[in-house]
Amino acid sequence: MGEMRKTYDEKFKKKTVDLYLKKGLGYKNVAREMGINESLVRRWVRHFEAEGLKGLEEKRGKAKGLGMGRPRTRPEDPEVKLKRLEAENEMLKKLLQM
What is 57-94 written as a DSSP string? Predict the structure, then answer.
């Protein structure tokens, strides 16, 4: 199986960004001091400059509305689709009768 990714809280990310922006340390020095990869520092600084603190929030696993999740990798089977639509129609008919 794949390796689990480590997640960092907003406080840690903010401290890292502050080291870069306020203390004037370079990406490599900040990464070394915080014990993380340089690319993370670059990404967090870029997100912070674009969106502020909201840019440092964890975004993985949060769909942003209907149809915004992971797309289907294969089309729905026609028989399954037909059954689903028939059930949906029956439900709508019952709601209209109320």
Answer: S--TT---STT-SPPPSSPPPHHHHHHHHHHHHHHHHH
